[in-house]
Amino acid sequence: MRGSYSIKYVLPALVPELRYDGLAISDGGTAMDAYAQLQYCSGPELIGKTIEDLSKYCELDTLAMVKVLEVLQKQACL
Question: I want to staple 20 with a disulfide (CB 3.0 to 4.6 A). Which of 26, 27, 52, 63 is the partner?
Fold first, then answer.
């Protein structure tokens, strides 16, 4: 985990089948920037695409936390 407890490092170590690769938004910094830029977006297509990309990122981020918790709970029971 390279000495980090960030989900981006923990996830590959504990749940390697879940990956952020291929997402238009694949990290928290980009997600925060995209969300902040929504107020300046013009056109429903760009707004819709940004919201869709944010939703995919947030969905994976939430699922990642659930899966990491499941792995940790299993390990604690051994």
Answer: 26
